[in-house]
Amino acid sequence: MAASDTLLANAIRALAMDAVEAANSGHPGMPMGMADVATVLWTRYLKFDAADPKWPDRDRFVLSAGHGSMLIYALLHLTGHARPTIDDIKNFRQLHSPCAGHPENFELPGIETTTGPLGQGLATAVGLALAERHLNATFGDDLVDHRTWVIAGDGCLMEGINHEAIGLAGHLGLGRMIVLWDDNRITIDGAVELSSSENIAARYAATGWHTVACDGHDPADICRALDEAIADPRPSLVACRTIIGKGAPGKEGTSAVHGAALGPDIVAKTRLAMGWEPEAFEVPEEIAETWAAAGVRSRDVRLAWEARCDADAQGATFRRRMSGELTEGFTLKPYLDGLLANPQKLATRKASELVLGTITEQLPETVGGSADLTGSNNTKTKALQPLNRNDYAGRYVYYGIREFGMAAAMNGLALHGGIVPFGGTFLVFADYARPAIRLSALQNARVIYVMTHDSIGLGEDGPTHQPIEHLNSLRLIPNLDVYRPCDTIETAECWELSLQDATGPSLLALSRQNLPQLRTDASENLCAKGAYRLVAAEAPRRVVLVATGSEVELAVSARAQLEAKGIGADVVSMPCWSRFDAQPADYRRDVLPKDALIVSIEAGTTMGWERYTGLDGLRFGIDRFGASGPAPKLYDYFGLTADAIATKVAAALEN
Amino acid sequence: MAASDTLLANAIRALAMDAVEAANSGHPGMPMGMADVATVLWTRYLKFDAADPKWPDRDRFVLSAGHGSMLIYALLHLTGHARPTIDDIKNFRQLHSPCAGHPENFELPGIETTTGPLGQGLATAVGLALAERHLNATFGDDLVDHRTWVIAGDGCLMEGINHEAIGLAGHLGLGRMIVLWDDNRITIDGAVELSSSENIAARYAATGWHTVACDGHDPADICRALDEAIADPRPSLVACRTIIGKGAPGKEGTSAVHGAALGPDIVAKTRLAMGWEPEAFEVPEEIAETWAAAGVRSRDVRLAWEARCDADAQGATFRRRMSGELTEGFTLKPYLDGLLANPQKLATRKASELVLGTITEQLPETVGGSADLTGSNNTKTKALQPLNRNDYAGRYVYYGIREFGMAAAMNGLALHGGIVPFGGTFLVFADYARPAIRLSALQNARVIYVMTHDSIGLGEDGPTHQPIEHLNSLRLIPNLDVYRPCDTIETAECWELSLQDATGPSLLALSRQNLPQLRTDASENLCAKGAYRLVAAEAPRRVVLVATGSEVELAVSARAQLEAKGIGADVVSMPCWSRFDAQPADYRRDVLPKDALIVSIEAGTTMGWERYTGLDGLRFGIDRFGASGPAPKLYDYFGLTADAIATKVAAALEN
């Protein structure tokens, strides 16, 4: 006989309590409050097979309220996934346990996306749901036909990213996305009414969502609401009225159960009230079996899918795309040959548009977009038609003025698999998207950020629009490759590297202003090394001018002046710090020799460049906010001219 | 005879066209589209006196759609403000003109807040409006009784920050805040419907706002809507149906007029259609006089206010607070003496709470808050009662799970004057608030960020919650002082410095974990120098261990091990890079002498520390994402123990 929903849910509650108790750290309130909803979802609705958590057509489940991580660890374990084991759960929140404090997609295959930073799970789910519709339109119902489920708390709904995410989902008509809102009326500081008094359902409805409410502790009522959500063509918000920490006598329904162990007394009382007798971390056989059965509920569906995919004319292509491998035969060689034959003086944002022309033609897995700066970011090519509710097969998303929402959605597109997303905004607005860029890096998501207007070179828009600290602040993010190419060739090379790196995000910082084509050879992707000698000294080398992007041209001019004075100077182009840092020591020493004055030139903050110049080198840059004026005047005003640089370098050598 | 509203508005349109044409850069569409609304607002509703743009009881006007900067430059000029002059406007977007590409509060006294990064003007206005209510409750109707007006575009309303801002304003019942939405249905990429399909009025209504619509080109209808907005006790959204670039034949109503000069042909046609004959930058006398009259409309009101303020028992206090000067007699000496007499081993977040106890008692101008982490950030003291719609005299804001909204609102509180705001979240979520932190710095706003849980020392919550790159990424922001105190004494010193710096923001990075009190003397605020020798070497000095915050304790232990081996080592505590960088060269050389091995120790990214260690020094830190586990295990895992450090330092000296 199958165990009742309540018993199944109590197994979650018990595991959550036990794990938090053992760690003496964690969040029991949410798993206990949402146990009933999660039980209904995972035993009756969610399409998955515990034997293959990477089955491409599984439903995606996102625990946006990531602090309730014990909920998903309990669900994965109880449904028979290989991991986490009960020992993993016993090691909840311990070093090297896959059951980390918050769910990490790189720890357990059943975790679709890393959550914890509030609101982002939900916003990432928008990308997951959009990927489903896009791949469905591309590969058909036989191969792609699944839903995206989200559990979100009041925190997720209060964060600004929520507005951007639901605005996108409502606009794109992502009807297969269903958000289960843990409506427990409690935040960390106390009652929700301390800080908010909005009508959330009305707000979602205003944004094109279907909404329905249910008693989150009544399985039949939960089913009614989920059925209604599935039936409605709009994305759905299901307000699940719950009691946080449900079952914990004297503590349930208060913020006291949110983020700390209940303590042995309350745990004992809760067990007594639930009639739960097993030892800690033990699950009675009947309950365990019922849960295990839920884990194989969709096995036949999966096997039928595998057979369909094997038989499908597009099956191999679909599998290849889901594996992350780029379309075979992808090459930029003819494009590069064309540039060499016919050099172009172009802004790197324009050079990016050119190379994207051939990339988007060759790689149908690319899906582009911009946060309402399409004509400035140059992200739309001929091959890309709008992706919207009228044509999910399109490959260009008008993300609107939603930088953060775009970045989070791109994380979802990448994590779903089958898609290589890229999207644009101004570099200065990387700040708006920064929390999602960090999660791209943490999650090893191949997302390509196209950030144009990358310095004071944008001119008149002034300090609010001029990146100063942004390049270095982005270079600090682990596992993010920041590229700043100097010309058309480097732009193509950096795009190639970004596409080929399936293990993390890349960010291209591109100029608004025109730049000469400096490279005369493209036989090797030199950007792969992060930095390389672009021009070698003629006179005996005393100086190395290291520059990036638009300032490489400046370095070349300054070098000419130095050489004219008999001072030998190399020019090193350094499009990518992280790649250079990964080179062998002898390569790095060859590029930046100890016996030369190392000079950095970049129209951004100098703090950080000591890494390459040492304390004895010179650093040209801008250590204050920018100013409004025509770009050439600004370069002059901030001392970033070949004259000023050559003069100061020569003077430094004389001292 | 007074010129008609249409003629007044056309003067704005003409100046906007002329200035953008002269600069061949800028945004004519918005000023032309909103000229009629702005004319009605500034000639009939806005309380201001051009002779004293800093009059404390003026209405605040915020151009949240900052790209339409020519609108406010035209308004300030036409109403007779000393600046901008017509020459300033002729130099629109030129280096050193106060008429920068986007409005900058430090360029012109009539600009309340720097805008351009979309959504933030509106979110800052929430702080301005809240400041008004708080000061009204504190000082009474006689001294504080004004409104906050905002012009916002679709971009401001689409950004996530909009959700946080209106959520706060609706919850706090800021009925004196009125947002004039430039409802022109156009974004840069084209029609709004490309990227959004929400019912904005319904969304605002769901969030506790009053909404009303009007024809943005019909003065009578605009007046009707503004009257209704004023009458309603809720904050109001006035949807002004407008045509972007109104008046430009063939181009109005399209995104083509948004962000580029119209060109001489269209300008000529527009002038013809408007019947506008004057030369460029000229305004006919009758129109100029009518505008000038609007600039003195509230002069009597201001003079009456000045008289009331002079007579008011609290008038001098109010003026002192508005000047930014701290309450007289403020001192932390007794508090520091207490610490010296009775040393405390405390987390610096707890030390912060203690010192805030005396600060909030002594300084009624302080208004605290937290983004739903009150008990973790330790930001609430006994002196602070909740500030909400039932008690605007309260001094503690429950900002909700809205880090960005909190930061922007704090900018508004600071820019209004009379208030020194501080607010807390976890350091890792500085990323969520980063765009507003940058604007605190650019705007010279005294905002104090209380960022706790400042490293892997927070333990089990794992990589999504552990700051790694954050300290250095924040240190990169110009004009932001980042403090990381190591004990109770330094925490108090850093608070003192933050409060005393009226010219910019400060950020306190505070530990979750307990730290010993290392300082034994508090006769001088040593943090003022940014870094100082905490412990001097006993054996001949060969090493300087430079550390911050929780790692200073580590440095002290590592030093003891080195000294035991006969290796003399200083310990330098470096709570604030920017302050240290501002010290004279000889002081810096004394603290970090060239003849010693400089070693940095900080539980964050090492990239950037080369600035102090040089390339030959050692850098202990974490150059990857964190991990979930108990804090001591994490410190051990990442090699941040006294043993590991002392061993490596000793080995380096042997090489």
From the alpha-carbon coordinates, what is the Rg of chain A to the nearest angstrom?
A: 27 Å
Classified by CATH, the class of the largest domain in chain A is Alpha Beta
Number of domains of chain A: 3
Oligomer designation? homodimer
CATH superfamily of the largest domain in chain A: Thiamin diphosphate (ThDP)-binding fold, Pyr/PP domains
Question: Biggest interface and which pair forms it?
Answer: A-B, 105 and 105 residues
Q: What's the CATH architecture of the largest domain in chain A?
A: 3-Layer(aba) Sandwich
- Would you report the number of β strands of chain A? 20
Q: Tell me roughly what share of residues is in helical segments of chain A.
A: 40-55%
Individual helix count of chain A: 27
Largest sheet of chain A: 6 strands, parallel
Strand order, largest beta sheet of chain A: 10-9-11-12-14-13
List the uncertain runs of chain A: none
CATH fold naming of the largest domain in chain A = Rossmann fold
Mean pLDDT of chain A: 97
**Strand percentage of chain A:** 5-15%
Which word captures the global form of chain A? elongated
How many angstroms does the end-to-end distance of chain A come to? 89 Å
